[in-house]
Write a structure and sequence with these properties.
Strand content of chain A: under 5%
Strand order of the largest sheet of chain B: 2-1-3-4-5
Largest sheet of chain A: 2 strands, antiparallel
Oligomer: heterodimer
Mean pLDDT of chain B: 76
CATH class of chain B: Alpha Beta
Number of strands of chain B: 5
Helix content of chain B: 40-55%
Radius of gyration of chain B: 18 Å
Strand content of chain B: 5-15%
CATH topology of chain B: Rossmann fold
Number of strands of chain A: 2
Structural class of chain B: alpha/beta
Number of domains of chain B: 1
Helix content of chain A: over 70%
Number of helices of chain A: 16
Largest interface: A-B, 45 and 44 residues
Number of helices of chain B: 9
Structural class of chain A: mainly alpha
Strand order of the largest sheet of chain A: 1-2
Chain lengths: 359, 271
């Protein structure tokens, strides 16, 4: 039996839908995702919830999972994610190649950072497997794989001392921001879009806030006043976002990354805004569950089947981008494509769950 | 027979281009800025780039003999053929050969598929991080494919150019690529024209990759089996790098470098 609808699955489903919509850049519905009014976006939410879910593997503090079993499960999960990533990347490459042939347009080969696969295949295939070469919009799973490979260490450090875990994670984060250290790409020269040294902090925060003690305990005890503080700050950030007000990054003191809005490095301003967003919107779930139960049911279903939905959503987004170009689609195309895509994601998630439960 | 005629044409074109740029080569310290582009990149009748001075690059060259280039927009690897260097490396090597003792540092931040508005936001951040003297911005292809309004893109590019100028950074726009199937595509052509107008109005260097490759394609047709689109794309990258290197070199002195080579002599009618 699938687990009941809950807030974590609901918000994960919400993040998955937004990622699907945002990965078709230029489409009409992109402007209605929460990034239009927020510094942080669905990526922060997705990684935070991935960290939150780690608590289910680690087990409660009074009955923790055996260490060997814990490490084995997490490494196996990382391998599953890696396999899924490799499969969808290969499918994406084939889709781009087929589209280039059908539309007689080699520019499509260069879309999504795929040119190197065709023009420098020897090095690039090594890079694809080593995750040092990532297609555009196919860059979250490599981060997730790295985070899951780190997660045994995170879980064991948590058992030793939560404060040590938070301190180590924060130090790695701050050092990366100050030194601008990141993972580089190869064979193309560049950087990972999601710097794992910074984004691990979001993952660890998700894990720690999910725990009943430590940071999680503190957050639960102080949630009331944090929400009161959060509202005006979130409103101001939304206003700034809506009107395009942005601090000139060159005016920020050194080291710049501590003060500017940098998604790749998950700069502190994004983390703070995101945590306040979580604090504020965690109050909303019970109301939604009470008044719109079908919405909770649908989003939780997507959230429960997140890997499948994410992979299918990534390929659908790519197909829709190619389709938008091929037919020069406008709002009507976007409406049909987004609605059809969401229906398909729901149908596949429901079908998968039905198969799992009927075995 | 055909191969021989092609070589003769190429040599004639190379000599013509060499004569055109010969006076520049005589002036120190430039050694290679005036060298003609490779024969396969010659596009007679087409001006490969506007001629615009690059004051902030020139100032950096003068004050510290070191320039920092931010390469952003498309993937640096582009459609280059296997084993060849990416365009930024070509420019780096060319400038370091041309200006003795010059250190060119290329900061690669290319992400294919990224829309102009997202790149514009990243440019501001990267200027803070890397403090470049010039930005090489491959712009327009992703937006044209994604159906972004050309006027919206033009406004984004215009604002970014002005912001860069205010922050003492030169801009080089690298225009759209030539693809036969998109010759009649209204969105693609409108994007190309909008970017050309912005470059002209703002007085920034624009590498006319589309026009150059279109001409190369047109000239190749009667002589040989027409090049495939993939070959043209590769040629576009190689030639873009060659023209870009020379345009930056001449932009350092603010002088005319990229005049179009003369039209080739009419080929005799096929037997």
């Amino acid at each position: 039996m699938p687990r009941d609808a809950n807030a974590v699955d609901f918000w994960r489903g919400f993040a998955l839908i937004e990622i699907f919509v945002n990965h078709v850049p230029g489409n009409f519905y992109e402007q209605f995702t929460h990034k239009a009014l927020s510094l942080s976006d669905s990526a922060e939410l997705f990684v935070f919830l991935a960290g939150w879910s780690l608590k289910f593997v680690v087990g409660p503090p009074d009955a923790p999972a055996p260490a060997v079993r814990l490490v084995g499960r997490l490494v196996l999960r990382a391998y599953q994610l890696f396999s899924a990533h490799v499969v969808i990347v290969m499918l994406a490459v084939a889709m781009l190649a087929a589209a280039a042939r059908l539309l007689d347009n080699p520019l499509i080969l260069e879309w999504f950072n795929a040119a190197a696969v065709f023009y420098e295949p020897v090095e690039t295939h090594i890079g694809l497997v080593l995750l040092t070469h990532q297609l555009g919009y196919f860059d979250i799973l490599p981060l997730y794989v790295v985070l899951l490979l780190l997660s045994p260490l995170i879980a064991l450090l948590d058992r030793f001392n939560q404060t040590v875990l938070l301190t180590v994670s924060f130090l790695i984060y701050i050092v990366s921001l100050i030194t601008e250290a990141t993972f580089t790409t190869w064979p193309t020269q560049g950087e990972w879009f999601f710097n794992p040294m910074c984004w691990q902090f979001d993952f660890v925060l998700g894990f720690l806030f999910a725990r009943p003690t430590g940071a999680g305990g503190w957050a639960r005890r102080n949630l009331g006043w944090v929400r009161i503080v959060a509202i005006p700050i979130l409103a101001a950030a939304a206003w700034a976002r809506w009107y395009g007000f942005e601090l000139d990054p060159t005016l920020a003191p050194e080291p710049h990354l501590l003060f500017v809005d940098a998604k790749s490095f998950l700069s502190p301003i994004r983390v703070m805004q995101f945590l306040l967003l979580v604090a504020a919107f965690s109050a909303v779930y019970p109301t939604i569950a009470r008044f719109v139960p079908p919405l909770v049911s649908v989003l939780s279903l997507l959230g429960r089947n997140s890997l499948l939905v994410f992979c299918l959503g990534s390929l659908l987004s790519l197909a829709l981008q190619i389709g938008r170009f091929a037919v020069r689609g406008g709002i009507a195309f976007d409406t049909a494509a987004v609605a059809g895509g969401l229906l398909l994601l729901y149908a596949v998630a429901a079908g998968h769950e039905w198969l799992e439960t009927s075995r | 027979m055909r191969a021989g005629r092609r070589w003769r044409t190429a040599i004639a074109l190379a000599l013509a281009a060499g004569l055109l740029t010969a006076p520049l080569r005589a002036e120190p310290p430039v050694e290679t800025v005036g060298t003609p582009v490779p024969p396969e990149c010659l596009a007679p009748g087409v001006e490969a780039s506007s001629t615009v001075p690059l004051p902030f690059v020139a100032a950096a060259l003068k004050s510290r003999n070191r320039i920092v280039v931010l390469a952003i927009g498309g993937s640096a690897i582009g459609g280059r053929p296997y084993g060849s260097r990416d365009y930024a490396s070509v420019v780096e090597a060319f400038l370091e050969r041309s200006f003795k003792g010059l250190d060119v540092q290329i900061v690669q931040r290319g992400v294919s598929g990224e829309l102009g508005r997202d790149v514009a936001a990243r440019i501001r951040l990267e200027v803070a991080r890397s403090r470049p003297d010039v930005v090489f911005w491959q712009v327009g292809t992703a937006d044209a494919l994604a159906g972004v309004d050309p006027e919206e893109l033009a406004a984004t590019v215009r604002d970014t150019i002005r912001w860069l100028r205010d922050h003492e950074v030169d801009t080089v726009l690298i225009g759209l690529q030539y693809v036969r199937v998109l010759r009649e595509d209204p969105q693609y052509q409108a994007t190309r024209e909008a970017l050309a107008e912005v470059a002209k109005a703002e007085g920034v260097l624009r590498i006319r990759r589309y026009e150059v490759v279109e001409t190369i394609n047109r000239l190749q047709k009667p002589q040989e089996v027409p090049a495939s689109d993939a070959e043209l794309t590769a040629a576009g990258y190689n030639c873009m790098a060659e023209y870009l290197a020379r345009a930056v070199g001449s932009g350092l002195f603010g002088r005319k470098e990229s005049e179009p080579p003369p039209l080739p002599p009419k080929a005799p009618p096929p037997p």
